[in-house]
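2024-03-11 09:14:02 DEBUG pipeline.ingest accepted 1 chain
2024-03-11 09:14:02 DEBUG pipeline.ingest length=147
2024-03-11 09:14:03 DEBUG pipeline.predict start
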Amino acid sequence: MNTTATTAQRPAAGNAPSDLLRTSLRVDGWSTAAFGVVMLAGSGWFGGLLGLPATWSVPFGIAMLGGAAALGLIAGYPEIPSRLAALVVVGNALSCVAMLLLAFTDVVALTGLGTAFVVVGALVVAVFAEVEFIGLRRSGPGSAVLT
C-alpha cells in the first residue's frame, strides 16, 4: 500500500519570502502602537522634558494607533498585497524624513533630549522601511506575498 501524502510545495517555515515582510510589519505595528500609547500617556510630560507640546503629541499618538491598526491588518492578510506593503515602505520613509525635519528645524522648540528622541525615532522608522523593503523585494515583482 502506498501512503504518499500530497503536500503543497512551500518553502520550509522561516524561509518563505513573505516571512520577513510579515514579521517586520507585525513588529512595526506593535512598536507603533506602543509608541502611540506612550505619546498619549506622556503628552504633558513630553512638553517640559522634550519640548514637544501636547498639541503635537496627542494627534501623533492617535495617528500612530491608527497606523498600528493598519499595519496589523496588512500583516494579517493571507496574501499581503504588494501595493499595500509598498505603501508602508513609502510611508515609513516619509515619516523618517518628516521626523528629521522636525528635529533639525525650528518648527517646534525641542530640547536637546527632544532632538535626540526624534532622531532615534527617525532611525527606527528608517530601519523598518529598509527591512520591509527587503521583504517586499524578496516576495517577487508585482505579486501578492503569500503566507
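2024-03-11 09:14:41 DEBUG pipeline.report The longest strand covers residues 79-80.
2024-03-11 09:14:41 DEBUG pipeline.predict end
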